[in-house]
Model the fold of this input.
Amino acid sequence: MPLYFFRIRNGRYSGASEVGSECADREAAWKELTNVCADIAGGISRKLQENSEWHMEMLDEQKQPVFRIRIVAETLD
Done:
């Protein structure tokens, strides 16, 4: 099974996991990404600063992005 890796970006911080997750295919990788993101989204949104952005990406075995979920906090005045 192919390995997929998570990467989180928040402002200047960016970090990728060194331990991969085995997923049967891209659909399974997407489901894993959305499940993990859902588990941590509440904590992330409570800590977001105004006009900031948080990303969680799923990387393939070559550490290239396959999927990305973004949470954006914008001031609209």
